[in-house]
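Methods: example folding runs. The two proteins below were folded one after another, and each record is reproduced exactly as written to the output file, sequence line first and structure-token line second.
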Amino acid sequence: MSNSTTTQPTIIQSKISGPIESSIIEKLTDKFHPSYLKIANDSHKHSHHAGMVGASNVKESHFRIEIISDEFSGLNMPSRHRLIYQLLDDELKNKGVHALQMKTKTSSEVKN
């Protein structure tokens, strides 16, 4: 008898999710199978910064991500962040995502 129960992850997203945020959620969910994922679009807090002047994407440029996934087991924080940066390479290089703020944990780290 198999004990494979599939639980749906808790996903919390911005009130108005755009196409880039939706893509980020899909990629993170598919790759890391998180038990918890929270993404917040903080672009409005940065739209006046000098680096954003003339930018083509000011509505989905800055995100805050909290993710709990056992796929991070055995990896230190920089390695976890590198995996996410690699996964979101297209959004960062081609779609105008300027910054990601991340909290990455495993379920055992949350329990401790």
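Second run, written to the same file directly after the first:
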Amino acid sequence: MNYLFVTLAGALFGAGITISGMGNPAKVQNFLDLFGQWDPSLALVMGAALAVTTPGFRYVLKRGKPLFAADFSLPTLKTIDGKLIAGAVLFGMGWGLSGLCPAPALVALWTGASSFFLFVAAMIAGMFAYRFLMEGKSA
């Protein structure tokens, strides 16, 4: 039953990414291009996401535990350190240059375009590189 709900949630999330245009790198890059062909429509997408998520989190976290897990998996660190800042900078640079972040990249794979497969392969390689170099774990 858990797999059914995970699949439905993933499909809904993917549909939202597709409908909002977040899977289109040009649309994302135009949103980030404040002094060129700026497209503010993704600000509306982000605002709508916050409008739904913020009260949703408050409601859900009042429960003792999630419906389909033993406990909530929430971040525990409360400090901003160099690793967090470096990660945010790298993420932002990658998002700005490619117009993709992980979830839209996975959704974009459905187009069959080789550039999206290359992006996802590089993303996975980066994840393994981080585990190996920063955490000292092997794949």
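Comment on the second run: The chain is about 65% helix and 0% strand.
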